[in-house]
Design a protein that fits this description.
By secondary structure, the protein is α+β, with helices and mostly antiparallel strands. Helices cover 19% and strands 38% of the residues. The protein has helices at 64-69, 126-129, 161-166, 184-194, 199-207, 212-217; strands spanning 8-17, 22-27, 40-43, 46-54, 57-62, 80-85, 104-114, 117-123, 137-140, 143-150, 154-159, 177-182. It has a 6-stranded antiparallel barrel with strand order 1-2-5-4-3-6. The protein has a 6-stranded antiparallel beta barrel with strand order 7-8-11-10-9-12. The chain starts with 7 loop residues before the first strand and ends with a helix.
Length: 220
């Protein structure tokens, strides 16, 4: 699990592409501290497993499903990426629940300055926007942010200059593709409400003799 608080901006040092997959080599320093092969590191919000590491870099495999769901397939040499190690059990929880499993991608439609704030408008498909609520949480390229506006076509977030400076957002312009992870709570609630009760629960309901006339008869 992650929090959406970016620890470091890394650099793509190498990309070895397969037919529908790739191996990324990512230059970094901070996220290597305390990390080992097999550990999880979020790269632009995507949970990847460290497959090898050395002085100032680590490598990670990206499978076809991840390539299809995220923007990692469009990364180029020297591209900046947001990095975060998995949250330790005794760590501080400063962002929100982030799984590192991308729901899809969005497109930066506009970037506007407003005094000390910077507004990003992100266009996204309706199947993603249904899970995005005003004042709720959203993860953009691994950054935990608060939704300030949402409609049927897009949503907007407002960030301070510091966030732009210390993350890879400073490299994102109008037209850039960004990874989106919606708040996981809404997805679980929808799944639970969507499916009928289990067979056992349905049988219990059928066997129940509690009716309105029964309750009236016994003074309820």
């Amino acid at each position: 699990m992650f929090t959406g608080l970016v620890e470091e901006v890394g650099t793509i040092q190498g990309i070895r592409r397969g037919q529908r997959s790739c191996v990324l080599t990512i230059g970094c320093r901070t996220v290597l501290e305390g990390s080992a092969i097999g550990d999880s590191i979020a790269v632009n919000g995507v949970c990847l497993t460290v497959t090898s590491m050395g002085s100032g870099y680590f490598t990670a495999d990206v499978m076809s499903e991840t390539m299809n769901r995220s923007s990692l397939g469009s990364l180029t040499q020297k591209a900046s990426v947001n990095l975060e190690r998995a949250m330790p059990a005794d760590g501080r929880f400063g962002g929100h629940f982030v799984s590192g499993h991308i729901d899809g991608t969005g497109t930066v439609e506009s970037i506007q300055r407003d005094d000390n704030a910077i507004w990003y408008t992100i266009g996204a498909e309706p199947k993603l926007l249904r899970y995005i609520v005003e004042k709720g949480s959203i993860t953009i390229d691994g950054i935990s942010l608060t939704v300030a506006f949402v409609d049927e076509h897009c949503f907007r977030v407002s960030i301070i200059p510091h966030t732009q400076q210390v993350t890879a957002l400073h490299d994102r312009g109008v037209g850039s593709i960004v990874n989106l992870e919606c708040d996981i709570i809404g997805k679980y609630v929808e799944k639970l409400l969507k499916y009928p009760s289990s067979q056992e629960e349905q049988e219990v309901k059928k066997e129940s003799r509690i009716t309105e006339s029964f309750l009236r008869e016994y003074g309820f």
